[in-house]
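Cross-posting from the modeling subforum.

Setting up a comparison between two proteins and wanted a second pair of eyes on the formatting. Protein 1 (sequence, then structure tokens):
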Amino acid sequence: MASKDALFKPVTHCIFDMDGLLLNTEALYLKVFNDILEPYGKRFTWAHKAETMGFQSAQIVHYLVEKFELPMSDDQMHQLLQKKYSETFPTAQLLPGVERLLRHLKTHRIPIALGTSSSVESYNLKTSHLQEIFDLFDQKVMGSSDPEVKRGKPQPDIFYVVARRFPDNPEPSKCLVFEDSPNGVEAGLNAGMQTVMVPDPELPRNLTDRATLVIDTLENFKPERFGLPKFQ
């Protein structure tokens, strides 16, 4: 019987999502949304979270106003979110295994990129205290601010843009996407890329079925399974 590793194809480039994969920000988003919804007697649950993970900023703003029938405009919601984000996001922390994997890939000269749906402003709030780690990336694409990213995840736009901006412009099949969300996994697959999913424990397991590989934490990722240099 063939090894499961035989199902994985060798890659040369790695693309990482940020929220919930590199940083513990999904829990921070939940706090922000529920702080806003609580006065209206409503709650943002993990079912809502699964539906919206990977959304661009404008998408989540509209979702909150429409889904919860809030008495405010999208612009008012946007302003409220920005205030809450500025108070909350600077507390973001790296998740287990992130620094080890990024430093390992960088040491072995594997091209690595960030492909996040966050805006530049949101990215800066989340990472200003973690720049030593985020400076390891060869390039960064912030989907909510980048004019070339026309559509948010699960559409493949952001991963196409990232691949094109690598100096050697690799084929999508040579890129490995790391994601935590169903929308992100779908975006990677739609771009013709293999996807490693690191789902939150709260995410229903049936929403992980589409990923090429599912692991509990980046600490458990074995690079050699995709033809990348092995940890020593």
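Protein 2 (same layout):
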Amino acid sequence: MAKKIDPLAARRAVEAVREWACDPEGTPAPPRAELAAAVRQSARLLEHSAPGHSVEVRVPPFVAVQCIEGPRHTRGTPPNVVETNALTWLRLVVGAEEYEAAVRNNRVEASGARAGEVARWLPLFRLGG
């Protein structure tokens, strides 16, 4: 079962790191606690918005969630995985980067026939940059 998520708290956590996510070269990196909160809360919001167990979204070392309706994964490596780093995840979350471009440019590793369905749910917030 997904952990309870407050969409407003998730938005605030993401807004706190938005400037860095949109301009990582020109903006100092946020403190680790702020980064962790933004990544975890946004991933859990995705889990809440697209309930299910067919795709696992991983943003190491912060969070892994299962989402999107379909067959449940219970053991071993999931058949559908989306994995990326915190910066790329947050860029996807705020709409500063498109999912397909991130996959094409090897910033997102997507495996399995259903992994691409995550794109339907992104961005979670249109905060742009």
